[in-house]
Write a structure and sequence with these properties.
about 170 residues, alpha+beta, 2 domains, two-stranded antiparallel ribbon, 6 strands
């Protein structure tokens, strides 16, 4: 199927598209989203009930400091019949959430370094880490005018029983 999608975009240069550019973290990023709704390109389309769109997202990042460019092309399939602008926004929002959540879980809870493998241990600990992260995110603890980081809140909860209890008391709000 992936080969069919690549061929479809190679043979359809006029595919409907949307270009979005951002400047963030010292990088210029250009995201071009193209969609094709003609499913005749897909040989196995019958195996994908409701398939209505194939999507190609090309991300081109330029590092301002070095001028170095990175290009990444990703393909998606969808049952939605939408515009390239909406697909571009939805894909970006999805990866933003994924990256932020997994980065915090790895940095603050060292999830990637975990060696838990027995039974459901990894999945159970991941669930507990996410609950702890949500509870810590609800705390608006500050040091001066700055909000405490998740890492510092976690350390403080480890060392201060009253602070830990105040965080756990917020679990009633779930």
């Amino acid at each position: 199927m992936h080969d069919d999608i690549i061929e479809a975009f190679e043979q359809t240069p006029q595919a409907v598209s949307d270009v979005e550019m951002t400047l963030d973290h010292g990088r210029i990023e250009k995201r071009t989203c193209r969609i094709i709704t003609d499913m005749d390109w897909i040989c196995s389309k019958d195996q994908w009930a409701g398939l209505r769109s194939i999507i190609e997202l090309t991300s081109e990042r330029t590092h301002k400091a070095t001028g170095e460019k990175e290009i990444q092309v990703r393909h998606y399939i969808s049952s939605a019949d939408s515009t390239p602008k909406r697909f571009n926004a939805a894909i970006r929002a999805h990866w933003g959430i994924e990256n932020k959540l997994h980065w915090v879980l790895d940095v603050c809870f060292a999830e990637d370094a975990s060696t838990k493998r027995a039974g459901n241990a990894a999945q159970n600990f991941s669930c507990i880490s996410k609950i702890a992260l949500n509870l810590l995110n609800q705390s608006d603890e500050k040091k001066g005018s700055k909000k405490l980081s998740i890492k510092r809140k976690r350390k403080k909860a480890d060392r201060d029983k009253d602070y830990l209890l105040s965080i756990l008391a917020k679990a009633d709000n779930f």
